[in-house]
Write a structure and sequence with these properties.
Number of domains: 1
Distance between the termini: 46 Å
Oligomer: single chain
């Protein structure tokens, strides 16, 4: 796992800076997602170490998962972007909307992962499917952590304005 940790950390920290400035263009996010998606597939391939037969069954399922996951990732980014636009003067309605959207996105992600875990169990062993999901959760947390490092907490900036 140490090898994967180093690769993932280098990818997340070295090549992909997720600055959450209010003027971040959506096309920048598309480029980041595309680059991360390609690099992530390489990490998954190196970690899974499947023979050709298993790989030929696994990758189409993975590609379908990645496509659906990308949409949820975009929505997650949109939520963060919306928060970045209002965090200095966030009101109750905005806080409620952003929080509910975040919960819905997290739930949708969990449901998607469960759906694809079941599909992967049918084309590779349950152990290999679990191995992928374990890596997926690790990478997801790594990326979310990196993104959230750039986002101030509600009220955090109020103290610095005085």
């Amino acid at each position: 796992m140490k090898k994967i940790s180093i690769i993932c950390l280098a990818l997340a920290l070295g090549g992909f800076q997720f600055g959450m400035a209010q003027d971040t263009a959506m096309n920048e996010m598309a480029i980041i997602q595309e680059m991360w998606g390609m690099a992530k597939k390489e990490v998954v391939g190196a970690y899974m170490e499947m023979d050709e037969t298993k790989a030929s069954a696994f990758w189409p399922v993975y590609d379908s998962y990645a496509m659906e996951r990308k949409e949820l990732g975009q929505e997650h980014f949109n939520i963060i972007q919306d928060y970045a636009n209002v965090y200095e003067n966030i009101n109750d309605e905005q806080a409620k909307d952003l929080t509910n959207r975040s919960f819905k996105n997290n739930i949708a992600t969990e449901k998607l992962q469960l759906k694809y875990y079941k599909k992967m169990c049918k084309v590779v062993s349950p152990v290999e499917a679990a191995k992928f999901m374990q890596l997926e959760k690790y990478l997801e947390n790594l990326v979310k952590s990196e993104m959230k490092e750039s986002i101030p907490f509600i009220g955090e900036m109020e103290g610095s304005r005085n």
